[in-house]
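User: Can you predict the 3D structure for this chain?
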Amino acid sequence: METQHKFQIEQEEKAKLTQKLKDEEEKNVSEERRRISAENKEIINRELMEKSQKEAKLFESERNEQINRRFEAEKELSHLKDELNRFWTTSDQYKKEKEEIEHKLKETEKLLRQTTQQRDFEQKRANDESKMKEIMQNKKIQAEKELKTELEEKEKSEILNKELNERISQLEREKLQIQHNLQLNGDNLDVEKKNMTKEQEKTKLGEEQRKKFEQEKIQMKQEFDRILKENVRLKQIIGSERTNEEQRFVDESNRIVSNEKKQMEIRLKNLEELKRNTEERLRIVELKLRETEQEKRIAEEKRIKAEQKIIELEQEKEQERDYVKVNEREYKQIQEDQEQEYAQVQTQVQTIDYESNLLVSLIPWNRIVKDLRQPLSRNERENNLVLFKIQKICELLRQIFKDQEDNTGRKLMIEQGIAESLLIIFQSFPLEKITKLNIQAFYDLTYPSNNENILLLCSKQPYPGLIRLLDHFNQAVVSNAIALIFNFLSATAIAQSSGILKIYTLFKQSNEDIETKNISAICIGYMYKCREIIDQNMKKEIIAFLKSLVYDNDQWTQKEARNALRYLGMNAGNNTEIKKGGFAIPT
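Assistant: Here is the predicted structure, written as C-alpha cells:
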C-alpha cells in the first residue's frame, strides 16, 4: 500500500515535471517564433540596404544558426525522450508533444524557405530594375545622340534653306534687272533706228546735193570752155588792143570759176566725210543691234535657266519642309519619352515611403546633373528640349524636398552637384529662360536645413548667381532670390558681387511687394553689422524702415528687424541715427 502510494506520488511528480517541461517548451517555441519573426522582418528591411554578397553570407550564417538551434532542440528532445521513456505512463503524451514540436519546426523551416524565396525574388527584382535602368539610360543616351545629330542636320538644312531662299531672291532680282535692261536696250534700239533713219535721209540728201554739185561743176566747166573759145574768137575779131581788157576779164572769170571750183571741192569733200561718218554710224548701229539681239538671246536663256533653278529650289524647299515635318514628329516623340521617363520617376517617389538613401539609389542623379549642365545653343528646338528637362528635374526636386526635414537627403543632393548645377544656370542662362520653379527648387534645398548644409552651399559661391536674379522681371523670382541671400548672408562675399547696392535698389523699388522690401532692409542691417553705413541716404532710409518693423504683426519680421538694429547699433555712427527721437530697441 505504501509502495503504491509512493508510486502514485512519483507519478504525480512526473506529471508535474512533464507539464512544466511542456510549458517551458511551448514558451521557448513561442519566444523562438517571435524572435524568428522579428529577425525575418529585420532581414527584409536590411536586405534593401545591403549588397547581394553580404546578404548571402548573412543568410548562410542565419541558416547555420537555425540548424544549430534545431540540432540543439532535437538533442534536448532526445534527452527528454530518454528521461520520459522511464515513465511509461507519459510516453504517448511525449510523442504527441514531439510531433507538435516537429510540426512547428517544419512550419518554421517553411517560413524560412518562404523568406529566402522572397529575398531571392526581391534581389532578382532589384537586379532586373538595375538592368532596366541601365538599358533605359543607354537608350536615352542613344536617343539624345540621335536627336543631337538630327538637330545638327536640321540646323544645316535651315542654313541651306536660307541660302536657297537668298539665291532665289537674287535670281529674281537678276531676272528683273535683265528684263529692265532688255527694255532699256529696246528703247535705245528704237532711238538708234530713228537716228539711223535720219542719217540715211541726210546721206541721201547729201548724195543728191553732191550729184547736183557735180552737174553744176560740169556745166561750169563747159561754160568755162565756152568762154575760152569765145575769148579766142573775140581776140581774133577785136584785135590786140582789146586783148588786155579781155585778158583781165578772163582772169577774173577764171578766178571766180576757180573759187567756185574750190568751194565745190570743199563741199564735195565735206559730203564725202559726212557719207563716211554716216556709213560708220550705220555700221556701229548695226553692230549694236546684233549685240543687243545677242544679249537678248543670252538674257532669255538666263531667264529660262533661272526659272528652271527656281523650280528646282522650290522642289528642294518642299522636300526640306517634309524633312522638317518628320523631324518635328521625332522631336515631339523624344519630348514625350522624356516626360514619360520623369513621370515614372515621380511615380516611384510617390509609391515608396520617404527614405533619403532609397530615393538616391532609385533616381539616376548623375544623368540628372548632366541634363542640368547642358548649355544653351543657337538652335531654338534644342534649347526648348534642354529647358524642358530642367523644368521636369525641378518638379522632381520640389516633390522630394518641399517642406521635408531631411538634412541627409539635402546633403547628398549638394554633394551630387544638383545645387551647383542650378547656380550655374542662374549665372549663365538668359534671365527670361529662368523660371520661378527653378529658384523654388533651389530654395527647397536650403529650407528647412541645418547649418552644416547651409555652410556647404555657401562653399559653392551662390552669391553671384542669386544677385544676378535680382534683375529678373518676375517679382516671385526676385523674392525667392532675396530670401536665399538672407539665408546665406555673408557681407564680404555679397559686397564683392556689388550686392549691397543691388539690394538697396531692390529695397527702394519694392513698394508693392512688402515682404521683399522687409527682407531687403533686414539683409542690409545684417550686412552692416559693426560697420557704419557710409551712404547717408541709405543709412536714414534703412534705419527708419527697420524701426517701423520692430512692432510688425509678423513675428519673424519683428524679431529679425530688432536683431538687424542691434547689429547696426554696434557702430557708433549707426547707433546715433537709431537713437534719434529717443528711440530704443525693444527687448
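Residues 167-319 form a domain with the Helix Hairpins fold (CATH 1.10.287). The chain has three domains: 2-143, 167-319, 353-582.
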